[in-house]
Amino acid sequence: MCKPRLIPSSVLRHIKPRPAAPSPRFTPLSTTPAPASTTQIRPLASWWSSKMPPSDVAKHLQADHDHIFENNRKWAAEQKVKNPAFFDKLSSGQEPDYLWIGCSDSRVPAEQITGLGPGECFIHRNIANMVPNTDLNVMSVVNYAVNHLHVKHIIVCGHYGCGGVKAALTPQDLGILNPWLRNIRDVYRLYETELDAIEDAEKRCDRVVELNVHEQCRNIIKTAAVQQSYAQNQYPIVHGWVFDMKDGLLKDLNIDFVKVLGQIQKIYNLTG
Amino acid sequence: MCKPRLIPSSVLRHIKPRPAAPSPRFTPLSTTPAPASTTQIRPLASWWSSKMPPSDVAKHLQADHDHIFENNRKWAAEQKVKNPAFFDKLSSGQEPDYLWIGCSDSRVPAEQITGLGPGECFIHRNIANMVPNTDLNVMSVVNYAVNHLHVKHIIVCGHYGCGGVKAALTPQDLGILNPWLRNIRDVYRLYETELDAIEDAEKRCDRVVELNVHEQCRNIIKTAAVQQSYAQNQYPIVHGWVFDMKDGLLKDLNIDFVKVLGQIQKIYNLTG
User: Fold this and answer.
1) Which positions are annotated as binding Zn(2+) (chains A, B) (predicted)?
2) Which of B9, B30, B75, B89 is the best mutation test for A, with the most CBs of A within 10 A?
3) ipTM, interface predicted TM-score of the complex
4) Chain A closest CA to B193's CA: distance in Å?
């Protein structure tokens, strides 16, 4: 069932010397040189080099693949040892209390930083933890989580140093990313006076991260699903948090859910 | 920075006796009764009961909140003990080799089942691991991961018993979820003869899960970002996997990336 496969021979056949990798149009999160590898964090330089012979590339691609299947077998075996009924329970259904809407960034692994296990948290992750009201993807997630899974908490979690937010604060054309990042620029516009007054660029960016979380929480509260469920059940409650990679801690933005709901409903009331 | 807050008094004020929870319009993943709680998996019945007095609801909401912040402080402290430089490295940047597109289902925690740590895997999760070509959310994720992060592998991972797939195979009106689930019905239509021939409903559903992963891999291969990057760099490679909750193992669908790329490019070639 889980037998690792070789990288297909059709891939190997096509591997040939390549030109140097194209320069990224923006550096997503940092220009700091990669530190040395540790067993804790994968080295930032990855294994790839433009000078690497094709056979080595193939070996690394295969090793990447095998690495995950090996990890997976180990994980599954460990769960069975800890609790022989683990997978029977897991496959019988889910009733998570939390919906997490976070960033796709590889350094914000939702379950690890919250200590939540399988079955506890329904997850949506996209670039910069956005909740645009016309986005069918995230709107379907919110609808499903509230109306069908009856989650008690919805968490929007941003993170300082967010590449999406940095990109949105940079005057450049990023093609298909432009309309997505536009939503972040729209947040800036709402708080233009406050943000313009922050002289330090990094601090200004971090404040946009926080304000963006506030606004995405508002976007969730504006939905019919949340307003109607709360009116009937007193849940879900919407929380805004920010993850700080410098110390690994979550910061609670202390959003007063009921107060914001009241403000929202002056214009966006959908409970009638 | 991470001080847990109380559930706002404005929430507590509004908590009052509630009517019984509305019946879900469909049971997302199983109708099997919840098994007893263990320390491994949160009890399926959650803490909520329609007969619970409001003060108890407030206590549970607060406990849910505190639980996560407690877990988070513990996790952060553990990382520092294991590697004092952990967060310095983490905050210096990301260069993940993998993009994971998986289901939002709480029982498929991507990093846990693959053993990947912070910084290793860029993540997008939505209902039924879909990659619709008009969806700006997932298309932005693919574009960012390929063109800016230069990921080497893109994994689409479905799972047997998927609630989204089950819902799409049920003749019912699910409101805003209809257009999202329509994409799964479109997959059924492509393989109608094969699927109609499977008499057992669960087996048919599981086969739709697999075929859906195949088709979402194709959708990724159809993008300009993937075709152009592969032509230049021989990466990323696209993989289709399915997670089986009954044993915790990943199953490789052995998609031959180069073969599929060739098939796709007869019609969808965007490398010119």
Assistant:
1) 103, 105, 159, 162
2) B89
3) 0.85
4) 25
